[in-house]
Design a protein that fits this description.
Elements (H helix, E strand, L loop, with lengths): L1 E5 L3 H13 L3 E5 L5 H8 L3 E5 L7 H10 L5 E6 L4 H9 L4 E4 L4 H14 L8 E4 L2 E4 L4 E4 L2 E3 L3 H12 L7 H9 L9 H13 L8 E4 L3 E4 L3
Parallel strand pairs: 1-2, 1-3, 3-4, 4-5
Antiparallel strand pairs: 6-7, 7-8, 8-9, 10-11
Helix pairs in contact: 6-7, 6-8
Protein name: DNA-binding response regulator, OmpR family, contains REC and winged-helix (WHTH) domain
Keywords: DNA-binding, Phosphoprotein, Transcription, Transcription regulation, Two-component regulatory system
InterPro entries: CheY-like_superfamily, OmpR/PhoB-type_DNA-bd, Sig_transdc_resp-reg_C-effctor, Sig_transdc_resp-reg_receiver, WalR-like, WH-like_DNA-bd_sf
Length: 224
Protein backbone atom coordinates (compact mmCIF):
# COMPACT_ATOMS: atom_id res chain seq x y z
CA UNK A 1 0.00 0.00 0.00
CA UNK A 2 1.27 3.46 -0.94
CA UNK A 3 0.99 6.34 1.51
CA UNK A 4 1.50 10.00 0.69
CA UNK A 5 2.47 12.05 3.76
CA UNK A 6 1.90 15.82 3.59
CA UNK A 7 3.51 17.26 6.71
CA UNK A 8 5.51 20.49 7.05
CA UNK A 9 7.07 19.63 10.43
CA UNK A 10 10.38 18.02 9.44
CA UNK A 11 10.68 15.88 12.58
CA UNK A 12 7.09 14.62 12.44
CA UNK A 13 7.30 13.95 8.70
CA UNK A 14 10.56 12.02 9.04
CA UNK A 15 9.16 10.00 11.95
CA UNK A 16 6.03 9.10 10.00
CA UNK A 17 7.95 8.18 6.86
CA UNK A 18 10.49 6.01 8.67
CA UNK A 19 7.87 4.34 10.84
CA UNK A 20 5.52 3.49 7.98
CA UNK A 21 8.38 2.24 5.78
CA UNK A 22 9.40 -0.06 8.64
CA UNK A 23 5.87 -1.50 8.54
CA UNK A 24 6.25 -2.32 4.85
CA UNK A 25 4.45 0.65 3.29
CA UNK A 26 5.77 2.60 0.32
CA UNK A 27 5.80 6.23 1.46
CA UNK A 28 6.32 9.60 -0.14
CA UNK A 29 6.88 12.67 2.05
CA UNK A 30 5.94 16.20 0.99
CA UNK A 31 6.24 19.32 3.16
CA UNK A 32 3.46 21.33 1.46
CA UNK A 33 0.50 21.06 -0.88
CA UNK A 34 2.43 22.58 -3.79
CA UNK A 35 1.87 20.71 -7.08
CA UNK A 36 -0.10 18.13 -5.10
CA UNK A 37 -2.32 17.07 -8.00
CA UNK A 38 0.67 16.17 -10.18
CA UNK A 39 2.18 14.26 -7.26
CA UNK A 40 -1.05 12.34 -6.57
CA UNK A 41 -1.45 11.56 -10.27
CA UNK A 42 2.06 10.12 -10.51
CA UNK A 43 2.34 8.39 -7.13
CA UNK A 44 -1.29 7.14 -6.98
CA UNK A 45 -1.42 6.79 -3.17
CA UNK A 46 -3.90 4.51 -1.45
CA UNK A 47 -3.89 6.70 1.66
CA UNK A 48 -2.98 10.37 2.15
CA UNK A 49 -1.86 11.38 5.64
CA UNK A 50 -2.55 15.12 5.62
CA UNK A 51 -1.42 17.68 8.18
CA UNK A 52 -4.10 20.30 8.73
CA UNK A 53 -1.77 23.25 9.40
CA UNK A 54 0.26 23.67 6.22
CA UNK A 55 2.09 26.65 4.73
CA UNK A 56 0.38 28.47 1.87
CA UNK A 57 -2.85 26.47 2.13
CA UNK A 58 -4.52 24.71 5.05
CA UNK A 59 -5.22 20.99 5.08
CA UNK A 60 -9.01 21.37 5.01
CA UNK A 61 -8.88 23.43 1.82
CA UNK A 62 -6.47 20.96 0.25
CA UNK A 63 -8.73 18.08 1.23
CA UNK A 64 -11.72 19.80 -0.40
CA UNK A 65 -9.69 20.44 -3.55
CA UNK A 66 -8.61 16.81 -3.75
CA UNK A 67 -12.21 15.64 -3.48
CA UNK A 68 -13.40 18.18 -6.04
CA UNK A 69 -10.85 16.69 -8.45
CA UNK A 70 -12.29 13.20 -7.81
CA UNK A 71 -9.19 11.93 -5.99
CA UNK A 72 -10.36 8.67 -4.41
CA UNK A 73 -7.40 8.09 -2.08
CA UNK A 74 -8.37 7.66 1.57
CA UNK A 75 -7.51 10.83 3.50
CA UNK A 76 -6.46 10.86 7.16
CA UNK A 77 -6.08 14.35 8.63
CA UNK A 78 -3.58 14.93 11.44
CA UNK A 79 -4.10 18.05 13.56
CA UNK A 80 -3.44 19.60 16.94
CA UNK A 81 -6.99 20.96 16.60
CA UNK A 82 -8.70 17.88 17.96
CA UNK A 83 -11.93 19.23 19.45
CA UNK A 84 -15.18 17.67 18.27
CA UNK A 85 -16.19 20.62 16.08
CA UNK A 86 -12.77 20.63 14.41
CA UNK A 87 -12.97 16.91 13.69
CA UNK A 88 -16.42 17.44 12.20
CA UNK A 89 -15.02 20.16 9.92
CA UNK A 90 -12.35 17.76 8.72
CA UNK A 91 -14.80 14.99 7.95
CA UNK A 92 -17.15 17.39 6.18
CA UNK A 93 -14.23 18.61 4.07
CA UNK A 94 -13.96 15.09 2.66
CA UNK A 95 -11.55 13.34 5.00
CA UNK A 96 -12.14 9.67 5.80
CA UNK A 97 -10.62 9.96 9.28
CA UNK A 98 -9.22 12.58 11.66
CA UNK A 99 -6.56 12.01 14.29
CA UNK A 100 -5.50 14.57 16.88
CA UNK A 101 -1.91 15.43 17.75
CA UNK A 102 -0.08 14.20 19.72
CA UNK A 103 -0.95 10.65 18.71
CA UNK A 104 0.26 7.12 19.40
CA UNK A 105 1.92 5.53 16.38
CA UNK A 106 0.06 2.25 16.99
CA UNK A 107 -3.26 4.08 16.71
CA UNK A 108 -2.14 5.72 13.48
CA UNK A 109 -1.21 2.30 12.08
CA UNK A 110 -4.59 0.86 13.08
CA UNK A 111 -6.42 3.70 11.39
CA UNK A 112 -4.37 3.35 8.20
CA UNK A 113 -5.05 -0.39 8.16
CA UNK A 114 -8.78 0.29 8.58
CA UNK A 115 -8.74 2.80 5.72
CA UNK A 116 -6.95 0.28 3.52
CA UNK A 117 -9.66 -2.30 4.19
CA UNK A 118 -12.37 0.12 3.08
CA UNK A 119 -10.89 -0.03 -0.41
CA UNK A 120 -11.14 -3.83 -0.59
CA UNK A 121 -13.99 -3.68 -3.14
CA UNK A 122 -11.74 -1.97 -5.68
CA UNK A 123 -8.54 -3.81 -4.83
CA UNK A 124 -6.98 -5.90 -7.58
CA UNK A 125 -7.34 -9.65 -7.60
CA UNK A 126 -4.97 -11.40 -5.22
CA UNK A 127 -3.43 -13.26 -8.12
CA UNK A 128 -2.41 -11.56 -11.34
CA UNK A 129 -1.90 -13.51 -14.55
CA UNK A 130 -0.82 -12.66 -18.07
CA UNK A 131 -0.47 -15.64 -20.38
CA UNK A 132 1.46 -18.24 -18.34
CA UNK A 133 3.03 -15.66 -16.01
CA UNK A 134 1.50 -15.54 -12.52
CA UNK A 135 2.10 -13.25 -9.56
CA UNK A 136 0.60 -14.24 -6.20
CA UNK A 137 0.03 -10.96 -4.32
CA UNK A 138 -0.32 -12.59 -0.92
CA UNK A 139 2.94 -14.54 -0.97
CA UNK A 140 4.59 -12.26 -3.57
CA UNK A 141 5.80 -15.28 -5.50
CA UNK A 142 6.14 -15.53 -9.26
CA UNK A 143 6.06 -18.41 -11.67
CA UNK A 144 5.95 -18.76 -15.41
CA UNK A 145 4.59 -21.98 -16.83
CA UNK A 146 5.84 -24.53 -14.28
CA UNK A 147 8.97 -22.58 -13.36
CA UNK A 148 9.19 -20.64 -10.09
CA UNK A 149 11.10 -17.37 -10.47
CA UNK A 150 13.10 -15.52 -7.81
CA UNK A 151 12.66 -11.75 -7.97
CA UNK A 152 13.96 -8.94 -5.76
CA UNK A 153 11.57 -6.56 -3.98
CA UNK A 154 12.01 -3.83 -6.63
CA UNK A 155 11.55 -6.33 -9.46
CA UNK A 156 8.34 -7.50 -7.80
CA UNK A 157 7.20 -3.89 -7.50
CA UNK A 158 7.73 -3.28 -11.21
CA UNK A 159 6.07 -6.55 -12.15
CA UNK A 160 3.00 -5.85 -10.00
CA UNK A 161 2.67 -2.37 -11.50
CA UNK A 162 2.83 -3.62 -15.09
CA UNK A 163 0.65 -6.70 -14.52
CA UNK A 164 -2.02 -4.61 -12.84
CA UNK A 165 -2.17 -2.52 -16.00
CA UNK A 166 -1.64 -5.02 -18.79
CA UNK A 167 -0.97 -3.31 -22.10
CA UNK A 168 -0.55 0.13 -20.54
CA UNK A 169 2.74 1.81 -21.37
CA UNK A 170 4.60 3.21 -18.36
CA UNK A 171 7.36 5.75 -18.87
CA UNK A 172 10.64 5.37 -17.01
CA UNK A 173 9.72 8.38 -14.89
CA UNK A 174 6.39 6.91 -13.86
CA UNK A 175 7.91 3.55 -12.99
CA UNK A 176 10.53 5.39 -10.95
CA UNK A 177 7.84 7.32 -9.08
CA UNK A 178 5.65 4.30 -8.36
CA UNK A 179 8.36 1.85 -7.33
CA UNK A 180 11.16 4.00 -5.90
CA UNK A 181 9.27 7.13 -4.86
CA UNK A 182 9.48 10.75 -5.94
CA UNK A 183 12.83 11.42 -4.26
CA UNK A 184 14.83 9.30 -6.68
CA UNK A 185 16.92 11.19 -9.25
CA UNK A 186 14.87 11.17 -12.51
CA UNK A 187 18.08 11.19 -14.56
CA UNK A 188 19.25 7.85 -13.20
CA UNK A 189 19.21 4.77 -15.46
CA UNK A 190 18.12 2.51 -12.61
CA UNK A 191 14.80 1.70 -14.30
CA UNK A 192 16.53 0.46 -17.45
CA UNK A 193 18.89 -1.65 -15.34
CA UNK A 194 16.03 -3.29 -13.46
CA UNK A 195 13.94 -3.80 -16.59
CA UNK A 196 16.87 -5.67 -18.15
CA UNK A 197 17.14 -7.85 -15.04
CA UNK A 198 13.40 -8.48 -15.06
CA UNK A 199 13.36 -9.38 -18.74
CA UNK A 200 16.22 -11.83 -18.20
CA UNK A 201 14.16 -13.66 -15.57
CA UNK A 202 10.61 -13.61 -16.92
CA UNK A 203 11.18 -13.54 -20.72
CA UNK A 204 14.59 -14.73 -21.90
CA UNK A 205 14.15 -18.41 -20.94
CA UNK A 206 10.74 -18.57 -22.68
CA UNK A 207 9.65 -18.54 -26.31
CA UNK A 208 6.77 -16.06 -25.93
CA UNK A 209 7.90 -12.59 -24.85
CA UNK A 210 5.62 -10.56 -22.56
CA UNK A 211 7.74 -7.55 -21.58
CA UNK A 212 7.88 -4.99 -24.37
CA UNK A 213 9.83 -1.78 -24.84
CA UNK A 214 8.03 1.07 -26.59
CA UNK A 215 10.84 3.18 -27.96
CA UNK A 216 10.66 6.73 -26.64
CA UNK A 217 7.64 5.89 -24.48
CA UNK A 218 8.49 3.26 -21.90
CA UNK A 219 7.56 -0.33 -21.05
CA UNK A 220 4.47 -2.51 -20.98
CA UNK A 221 3.61 -6.11 -20.17
CA UNK A 222 1.12 -7.93 -22.38
CA UNK A 223 0.51 -10.99 -24.45
CA UNK A 224 1.77 -10.58 -28.03
Amino acid sequence: MKILIIEDDEKVGSFLSRGLKAEGYLTLLQDSGTAIFDIVSQFEPDVIVLDRMLPQTDGLTLCQQLRSQKVNSRILILSALSEVDERVKGLRAGADDYLGKPFHFEELLARIEALGKRSVSVAPARRLQIADLQLDLDSMTVQRADTKLTLTAKELGILELLMNNSGKVYSRERILTNVWGMNEDPLTNIVDVYMARLRKKIDDPFEVKLLHTRRGLGYCLQEP
